[in-house]
Design goal:
InterPro entries: 6-hairpin_glycosidase_sf (IPR008928), GH-type_carb-bd (IPR014718), GH92_a_mannosidase_put (IPR005887), GH92_N (IPR041371), Glyco_hydro_92 (IPR012939), PNGase (IPR050883). This is Alpha-1,2-mannosidase. Keywords: Membrane, Transmembrane, Transmembrane helix. There is one protein chain. The protein is an alpha+beta fold. Among the domains are: about 15-320, Distorted Sandwich (Beta-galactosidase, Chain A, domain 5); about 355-465, Up-down Bundle (Glutathione S-transferase Yfyf (Class Pi), Chain A, domain 2), CATH 1.20.1050; about 465-475 and about 490-540 and about 555-590, Glycosyl hydrolase family fold. It contains 19 helices and 32 strands. A hairpin with a 6-residue loop joins β1 and β2.
């Protein structure tokens, strides 16, 4: 018995140690891994930070959330991942779908986009069968894909398994072939993501060239179209292989012949490229691939040829840790909360893409800060950009610098932008709010006179006409297409599409201008734009009603003669809620709350604090019906607005209800498109227990989901949150201290928490719905001081 027990004591620690090693190191696939789950096949290196293991890269990656799950870096230009055709799931806008067949492994993707996909370009596809140009070559998975931060892996049924790693502007693709199979790699130059169910918004191949040798290849591809309806744009590429091919074949359409050079054009619509055959004796092929919008030579120079696969994975993880994860220390009695925090933090740092030195448009200089893939600012201005202005002021600064440089070089700031071109604008010129948020939070290294000039361009000049079949009334490429109505009537009439949502957004945009003008000492502009920010009141109809509700007063369309249009009007419906409707992705009743700079006036219009709170109650199943949709950004702020009528406990209750019912774990975790990380930013602020009013210094206070959190600010200070008594029942604030002092306001200023000295929030939570806030309500700014 003693001997048996001693053996047991010796055996179990080693068993658990081995299991720990298996599950905390990167995966690698060998020829026999198709019979073994990838997480059990390991390299000799360990993931070097706990956050790396907590991030689920597949969070929100289904065809609703469209989060990109492949290998990339924070704001990286390269997003290396799979491109999948899955008829059951529909189009894969990020390239990924959990089912279907893999048609390519490409270098560029968006993350979290709706509308239509972008990129999926510069692709390889390993295979082992005979090449048949008459069918689309593809791979079938033998199990679900696996991934960690900076690493992605695919097991297939075709005798080859795949691993991917990404640098800033190059990637490494590693293929592990079964013994004895004929190892081949297809380079399809015309490969790209398409929107089969939305052909009017799909990308289209224009032309391209590829030149190869036994050891590598280079060339370019030109595409056009996509959700932003881009003009033709060109991407250059450069790739090499770790072993030389024994044969290189070129193909175009159905024609195949030996050769190292292939040209394609849209006139025939054929796919084209090269096939590299490495023979049956090769078990591993590693390919380095670089990309550039400038030249093939720059694509080659973007590759670090000395870096191997393992070191690239670890370097990418180190960068994620240093720039993002290491800034936070998160403690929770529920480990799922910590997982959720780091996973959403990861998803909030995927786009826009840092492309400094990679803008090919005339006038751009290599040293000008440049970001692309704003997809879109209409989604991100509310809380994603304010998150960057806390977590990474450097990135927040670079984003504003990039927006300003786009204006200086190309004439207008974007709302949506990809492939180095502006387009589309869904509502207002909401880059104005991004800039104002950075300004009032003292983001450094921005030329604010130039930035303000960009904002004034949006506010005063109608952009040149750009035809959009979904909204042909005015340009949707940039700026404020309906500006003439705004200047003439003080609201947008039905002469323009999205008349109600544009009116509300133009008002908020002008408020943003007023704040920057005030800070720059431009008193006339400050007064002018602050007055214009109140023009949303011009579409408030005090007599409007909704069936089944006993209160009056809603925003609604208004004609040029000043009359309200009652025909087919319902405050609880936005029709198709799309480009041609009065409201975009939000009902009139939702947009009625979209005046965070002027809530005091809104409360006055609805009649009382009680009615204001009742109106919020009626939007959500917690108290009413499901009318508001957090899956669309116009209702991001609404759950926190109870704070304006000193019912903060209701904000706490509703935010938790939404988190429980609309946000989950895994590929189906998000209630809508991630929208470039906007959804994830909403989750992060909710978990911390505060929410920003973009373009101001105000944060509305809810209650934290974490027991303890520290954020190490870039200035060396610390922001800290603690939640005494937190449990599933104890969610309500009983008392609060900020910076060690008792706090009686349900809001707090930016500098109080994130200024030179940092800040702290000490919550005492309990089960009682306490009205603890005895101080003044959050500020409203819709009037001159």
């Amino acid at each position: 018995m003693v001997r048996s027990l001693s053996r047991s004591l010796w055996f179990w620690p080693w068993l658990w140690f081995c299991i720990w090693i298996f599950y905390t190191t990167p995966t690698v696939s060998w020829p026999w891994t198709k019979f073994v789950p990838l997480p059990l096949i390991q390299q000799n290196t360990q993931w070097n930070h706990d956050a790396i293991n907590r991030v689920d890269v597949f969070y929100g990656a289904n065809c609703t959330g469209n989060v990109f799950p492949g290998a990339t870096r924070p704001f990286g230009m390269v997003k290396l991942g799979v491109d999948v055709i899955n008829h059951q799931w529909g189009n894969s806008y990020s390239g990924y779908a959990p089912g279907g067949v893999i048609t390519g492994l490409s270098m560029m993707h968006e993350s979290g986009t709706g509308g239509a996909p972008q990129y999926g370009v510069v692709a390889q596809l390993p295979f082992t069968s005979e090449f048949n140009p008459e069918i689309e070559m593809n791979l079938t998975r033998s199990q679900s894909d696996t991934g960690k931060v900076g690493y992605y892996a695919v097991n297939t049924t075709e005798g080859v398994d795949i691993e991917l790693a990404a640098g800033e502007r190059f990637g490494i693709l590693k293929y592990n072939f079964e013994k004895g199979v004929d190892a081949k790699v297809l380079v399809n130059v015309s490969h790209h993501l398409t929107a089969q169910e939305r052909p009017w918004w799909t990308q289209r191949f224009v032309k391209g060239i590829i030149e190869g040798t036994e050891s590598g290849y280079g060339g370019y591809v030109t595409l056009k179209g996509g959700w932003g309806n881009q003009d033709p744009w060109t991407l250059y590429f450069c790739g090499n292989f770790s072993v030389p091919a024994i044969q290189v074949t070129r193909y175009k359409g159905n024609a195949v012949q030996p050769g190292y050079y292939s040209v394609g054009s849209s006139r025939r619509g054929d796919s084209f490229g090269l096939v590299f055959d490495f023979g049956g004796e090769v078990s591993e092929v590693v390919s380095h691939v670089g990309i550039s919008f400038i030249s093939r030579e720059q694509a080659c120079s973007n590759i670090n040829h000395e870096q191997d696969f393992n070191s690239l994975v670890l370097e990418t993880q180190r960068i994620w840790n240093e720039e993002v994860f290491d800034k936070f220390e998160v403690v929770s009695s529920d480990p799922r909360v910590v997982d959720q925090f780091y996973t959403n933090l990861y998803g909030a740092h995927l786009i826009p893409s840092n492309r400094t030195g990679e803008n090919p448009n005339p006038g751009w200089k290599p040293d000008q800060v440049y970001y692309d893939d704003f997809f879109t600012i209409w989604d991100t201005f509310r809380c994603l950009n304010p998150l960057h202005n806390i977590v990474s002021r450097k990135r927040g600064s670079e984003i504003v610098q990039a927006l300003t440089n786009i204006y200086l070089n190309e004439g207008w700031t974007p709302d949506g932008r990809s492939a180095n071109q502006n387009g589309r604008t869904q509502g207002g010129s909401n880059s104005d709010i991004v800039m104002a948020d950075a300004f009032v939070k003292h983001i450094p290294d921005v030329d604010w006179e130039q930035a303000y000039a960009a904002m004034k361009q949006n506010a005063e000049v109608q952009p040149p006409y750009w035809y959009d079949s979904f909204a042909p009334d005015a340009s949707t490429k940039q700026g404020r297409g309906a500006l003439p109505d705004w200047l003439q009537y003080g609201y947008i009439t039905r002469n323009y599409t999205r008349s109600v949502s544009r009116t509300m957004e133009y008002a908020y945009d002008d408020f943003a201008l007023s704040q920057v003008a005030k800070g720059l000492g431009l008193s006339d502009d400050h007064a002018k734009y602050l007055r214009r920010s109140s023009q949303w009141q011009n579409i408030w109809n005090k007599d409007a009603q909704a069936d089944g509700y006993d209160y009056k007063g809603f925003i609604q369309p208004r004609d040029a003669d000043g009359s309200f249009n009652y025909e087919d009007y319902d405050p609880m419906s936005c029709g198709g809620c799309y480009w041609g409707n009065d409201e975009y992705e939000g009902k009139p009743v939702e947009y009625g709350f979209a005046v965070p700079h002027d809530i005091a006036k809104l409360i006055q219009l609805v009649g009382s604090s009680e009615t204001f709170a009742k109106r919020i109650d009626d939007l959500y199943p917690l108290h009413g019906k499901k009318i508001a949709d957090v899956g669309n950004e116009p209702s991001f702020l609404t759950p926190f607005l109870y704070n304006f009528v000193n019912e903060q406990w209701k904000s706490v209750e509703l935010v938790r209800y939404i988190m429980q019912h609309d946000f989950h774990f895994g590929v189906k975790s998000l209630p809508g498109n991630s929208d470039g990380g906007a959804m994830q930013a909403w989750v992060i602020f909710s978990l911390i227990g505060i929410y920003p009013i973009a373009g101001t210094t105000t944060y509305l206070i809810a209650s934290p989901f974490v027991n303890h959190l520290k954020l190490h600010l870039e200035n060396g200070a610390v922001f800290e949150v603690s939640a005494s008594g937190l449990s599933s029942d104890n969610i309500y604030v009983q008392s609060l201290k900020i910076n060690g002092e008792k706090w009686n306001k349900n809001w707090v200023d930016h500098d109080t928490l994130f200024g030179p000295n940092g800040g702290s929030m000490e919550f005492v939570l309990g089960s009682s719905q306490v009205v603890w806030e005895t101080g003044p309500p959050p500020p409203s700014f819709g009037h001159l001081d």
